[in-house]
């Protein structure tokens, strides 16, 4: 722990995107509320922030997505019904959701990109380091939650941190790829980032949906020139931080699921269900049966 550093107390969760990859479900339901087994992705994320000692969550929302804020409110009628049926543990679990964090929501009036979404939080965050977790990005790590790993890295290095994850070399063209020098087995000093490299990727370490950033990133975001469709890219502001030698990447432990993508969402559901003994027992034989049917050509 570097005692000269300000503590990371706030987490920005951009969740104002249109979710076009998940239509028609996302026509009226925010993808961030789609359940992983029975728990919305957004609740998993707020829980992750809480485990990292973060007290304030700043949710970036959009028109038609106010149910995300409702999810973290009290639900007295439902609680009363559960209590009257003797389901006290269930009632307490429901109540605990509203105690998970102090939640502030800010509207992003137009989906003008991730950088623009993060910039909406400038007034609430001010000049202090803060975490960012994308509202559709799940890290499953029993050992240490994803964002806590990044906060640890920030406390060790005093620099902005982006989460990195190894991806197959043939898939590097789908991601922002980090280039730089490894300082230790998991930490890279980032010199530059290459967005979706078509050839010669500098590494197979992709930037994924978690960051710890200094408050001055907001100034850089204001300087970023809008790109295609008026979008303001977070990557451009990160490149400015990297150019001054103040950005590292941390190769996260755990598995990552992009819950905004249909295949990633399905994988997350199976992975989380298989961790639950009451579901695993029925699920495993069923999966085997399904695979056998597919292999026989019966599906
Ligand atoms: P994505 O690119 O995965 O979200 O952004 P999207 O635009 O909703 O996805 P598709 O491609 O249309 O399906 C990652 C996260 O950043 C948020 C999204 O809500 C998501 O949680 N985001 C993205 C914003 O908050 N604002 C934006 O302008 C863009």
Short description:
The chain has 299 residues and is of the alpha/beta class. It has eleven helices and 13 strands. Uridine 5'-triphosphate binds next to α5.
General description of the model:
The protein is an alpha/beta fold. The chain is 36% helix and 23% strand. It is built from eleven helices and 13 strands. The chain has helices spanning 41-51, 67-70, 76-84, 88-98, 114-119, 122-125, 146-157, 217-223, 234-243, 262-274, 277-296, and strands at residues 10-14, 35-36, 39-40, 56-61, 102-107, 130-133, 137-140, 160-166, 176-182, 187-195, 205-213, 247-251, 255-258. The strands form three sheets. A nine-stranded mixed beta sheet has the order 5-4-1-6-11-8-12-10-9. Strands 2-3 form a two-stranded antiparallel ribbon. The chain has a two-stranded antiparallel ribbon with strand order 7-13. Strand 2 (35-36) and strand 3 form a beta hairpin. Helix 3 (76-84) packs antiparallel against helix 4 and helix 8 packs across helix 9 (234-243). The longest helix is centred in the C-terminal third of the chain and has 20 residues, at 277-296. The radius of gyration is 20 Å and the shape is globular. It starts with 9 loop residues before the first strand and ends with a helix. The structure holds uridine 5'-triphosphate. Uridine 5'-triphosphate binds next to helix 5. Uridine 5'-triphosphate binds at residues 14-22, 32, 60, 108, 111-114, 116-117, 134-136, 260.
Bound molecules: uridine 5'-triphosphate
Instruction: Specify the overall morphology.
Output: globular
As a percent range, the share of strand residues is: 15-25%
Low-confidence stretches: none
User: How many beta-strand segments?
Assistant: 13
Class by helix and strand content?
Answer: alpha/beta
Termini Cα gap: 55 Å
Mean pLDDT: 95
Number of helices: 11
Q: H/E order of the elements?
A: EEEHEHHHEHHEEHEEEEHHEEHH
């Amino acid at each position: 722990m570097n005692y000269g550093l300000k503590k990371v107390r706030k987490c920005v969760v951009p969740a104002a995107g249109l979710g076009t990859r998940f239509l028609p479900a996302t026509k009226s339901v925010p993808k961030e509320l789609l359940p992983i087994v029975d728990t919305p992705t957004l609740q998993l994320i707020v829980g992750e922030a809480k485990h990292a000692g973060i007290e304030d969550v700043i949710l970036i929302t959009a028109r038609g997505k106010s149910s995300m804020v409702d999810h973290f409110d009290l639900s007295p009628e439902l609680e009363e019904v559960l209590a009257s049926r003797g389901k006290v543990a269930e009632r307490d679990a429901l109540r605990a959701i509203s105690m998970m964090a102090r939640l502030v929501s800010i509207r992003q009036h137009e989906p003008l990109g991730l950088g623009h979404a993060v910039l909406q939080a400038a007034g609430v965050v001010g000049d202090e380091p803060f975490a960012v977790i994308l509202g559709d990005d799940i890290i499953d790590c029993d050992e240490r939650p994803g964002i806590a790993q990044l906060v640890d890295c920030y406390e060790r290095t005093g620099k902005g941190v982006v989460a990195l994850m190894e991806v197959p070399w043939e898939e590097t063209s789908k991601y922002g790829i980090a280039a730089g020098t490894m300082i230790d087995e998991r930490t890279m000093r980032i010199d530059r980032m290459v967005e979706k490299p078509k050839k010669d990727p500098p590494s197979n370490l992709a930037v994924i949906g978690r960051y710890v950033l200094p408050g001055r990133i907001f100034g850089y975001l204001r300087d970023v020139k809008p790109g295609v469709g008026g979008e303001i890219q977070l990557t451009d502001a990160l490149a400015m931080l990297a150019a001054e030698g103040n950005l590292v990447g941390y190769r996260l432990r755990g598995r990552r699921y992009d819950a905004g993508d249909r295949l990633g969402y399905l994988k997350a559901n199976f992975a989380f269900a298989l961790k639950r003994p009451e579901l695993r027992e029925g699920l495993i034989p069923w999966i085997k049966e399904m695979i056998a049917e597919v292999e026989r050509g019966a599906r």
